[in-house]
Amino acid sequence: MSVAKSHKVKDVFTDGPIAPTAISMSVAKHAARTDIGAHEIFLGQVRADVMDGLKVVAIEYTAYREMALERMTAIREEAFAKWPSITCLHVHHSLGVIRAGELCFMVFASAPHRQAAREVVAYVVDRIKAELPIFGKEIRSDETHRWKQNT
Amino acid sequence: MRVRLFGLIAEKAGSEFMDAEAPSVEALRARLAERIVGLEALSYAIAVDRVIIRDDAPLTGSEEIAVLPPFAGG
Q1: Residues contacting residue A122 through CB under 8 Å, at least 6 positions apart
Q2: Beta carbons within 10 angstroms of residue B72's beta carbon
Q3: Among the partner residues B7, B43, B64, nearest to A62 by beta-carbon distance
Q4: Domain presence at residue B26
Q5: Residue A5 above 60 pLDDT?
Q6: What is the mean pLDDT of chain A?
Q7: Residue B73 falls within a domain, yes or no?
Q8: pLDDT at B36
């Protein structure tokens, strides 16, 4: 069976949180691909950080969408070049207000064997955090805010 | 040229766009610093045609310019 690996520009952004049920649906969609032996999934959840006695209740994400999608296409191409056995790679990032406890980020890779799936997910998550122009406004319990910064 | 502003930088400027004339990235940094109070204390990057430019580079005015505060995705 030969299915073309997708290198076209895909929109990774969705408005609002990622529904936990969307993840099981996504897994289910791969059942037909019986060459897959491993799925690796990273999920980012909004954490209620506490600073100066104030709790983060939500993060409002915005992005420079055009640049983010260009960077994501380059990262995807590099990932497929480094791990050619990868069957597929799906990335979703939320925009808008995501409350603490909700999911805002998913990287989902499938491969015949676990090692490539694990490695590519770790690589793609780190590259996305470092390179995609996504901005996060942490909204706190007293309705003030501060701007999140990846370290 | 019309400069796109994001996140904290847009908040400081009170707008998601700023019109500025600058023949180079360095000149643009100076224009931005004149117009956005406190910008020099902030960490930011300039993207020209969706690529971050670390050094100086000439600008013709037809590029897509964006001012990007630190990233927070993931």
Answers
A1: A42
A2: 23
A3: B7
A4: yes
A5: no
A6: 94
A7: no
A8: 96
Q: What is the CATH number of the domain that holds A69?
A: 3.90.1170.40
CATH number at B31 reads: 3.10.20.30
- A128 lies in a domain? yes
Has residue A2 been placed in a domain?
A: no
B50 to chain A: closest CA residue: A67
Our measurement of the distance from residue A58's CA atom to the centroid of its chain's CA atoms, rounded to an integer in Å, reads 18
The candidate with the shortest Cα–Cα distance to A62, out of A114, A122, A3, A137, is: A137
Question: Is residue A3 in a domain?
Answer: no
Q: How confident is the model at residue A8 (pLDDT cuts 50, 70, 90)?
A: low
3-state secondary structure of A148: coil
Scan for tokens 């030969």, then name that residue: A2
Q: What is the pTM of this model?
A: 0.93
Residue A92's alpha-carbon distances to A17, A29, A72, in angstroms, are 10, 16, 11
pLDDT value at B7 more than 70 = yes
Per-residue pLDDT of B40-72, as tens digits, reads 999 999 999 999 999 999 999 999 999 999 999
Structural domains in chain B (count): 1
CA pair distance A35, B12, nearest whole angstrom: 52
CB nearest B71 (choices: A105, A134, A137): A134
Contact with chain A for residue B41, Cβ under 8 A? no
Residue range(s) defining the domain that contains residue B44: 2-68
Contacting residues of A for B4, CB less than 8 Å apart:
64
